[in-house]
TrEMBL record:
It comes from Pseudomonas duriflava. This is Threonine/homoserine efflux transporter RhtA. GO terms for cellular component: plasma membrane. Pfam families: EamA. Signal peptide: none annotated.
Length: 288
């Protein structure tokens, strides 16, 4: 199997972890500060990756620290803006608007970096967003002020993916991801210190269960794999895999929270998976 195809599957597995973690986080955070949760999540992920790649950390340079910080800043700002947006808008709106980064990434790549984007990728993005809409917008979208924060978050998430792609062949991917996640942990720690709802050692076991799963699988695994994968995968294809998250979240909600699985969700999932396959197939090469 080609490396790009292997990494594509590993990324899809990572979005499954994202989707499962959504249910765990929902029960774990409850009415507490989401920034405390995020600080623990990113902090534990940094610790785990630092232990795994301890030998590589001995080769850390200021250039790598600078690159990792530039990667981590848009990821941090995107997470904070998304959290603020969720306080003023619905989960439905947040999921769909955040998913707009699947269009923003090829748009930025084409307009800012002057890199060509295949027509099939644009088509795949539209198909995937249609599938996402079917999954999350059961009662339509009603935009409000929180959606403006979420739109800004989508821009920063797109910037994060593009920055990972830019630095992927210039620095050690594992070192930059450790620095990037450390930036996120410190930023969320600072935000939590300003949050009056912050409880630093929650007694609820659901909180710690959610933190452990989110930090190990949805953060350490996912972002490490993504950093390595972007040596072989284009940024817009990475963004397409992101849209698998609501698919897995819907199935996890059904299994873990007893939520119902509608026909719209199944059809939306088919749209998203079709878009992934379409983006990966090069028709011209196959005809040749």
């Amino acid at each position: 199997m080609l490396k790009r195809q292997l990494y594509l599957l590993l990324l899809v597995l990572g979005t499954a972890f994202w989707g499962i973690s959504f249910s765990l986080v929902k029960t774990g955070v409850a009415d507490g500060s989401p920034f405390v949760f995020l600080a623990y999540k990113f902090g534990i992920a940094v610790l785990v990756l630092a232990i795994i790649f301890a030998r590589r950390l001995m080769q850390l340079t200021w250039h790598t620290v600078f690159a990792g910080s530039l990667i981590g800043l848009p990821l941090l700002i995107g997470n904070v803006l998304q959290t603020i947006g969720l306080q003023h808008t619905s989960v439905t709106n947040s999921a769909f608007i955040t998913g707009l980064d699947v269009l923003l990434i090829p748009l930025f790549k084409w307009s800012i970096f002057k890199k060509p984007v295949p027509k099939r990728v644009w088509l795949s993005c539209v198909i995937a967003l249609t599938g996402l809409y079917l999954i999350v917008a059961r009662n339509g979208l009603h935009l409000n002020v929180g959606d403006l924060w979420t739109m800004a978050c989508a821009i920063f998430f797109a910037s994060y993916v593009l920055s990972v792609g830019y630095f992927s062949n210039k620095h050690d991917a594992m070192l930059t991801v450790v620095i990037a996640l450390a930036v996120c942990s410190l930023g969320c720690l600072f935000a939590a210190m300003l949050d009056k709802r912050a409880i630093w050692v929650p007694a609820e076991p659901f909180f710690w269960r959610g933190v452990l799963f989110a930090s190990l699988f949805a953060t350490a695994y996912m972002y490490a794999v993504q950093s390595a994968a972007q040596r072989y995968l284009e940024e817009e294809k990475v963004a397409l895999t992101y849209l698998c998250e609501p698919v897995f979240a819907a199935f996890a909600g059904m299994l873990l929270l007893g939520e119902s699985l509608s026909l719209r969700t199944v059809i939306g999932a088919v749209f998203i998976l079709t878009a992934l396959v379409l983006a990966e197939i090069n028709i011209n090469k196959q005809q040749a």
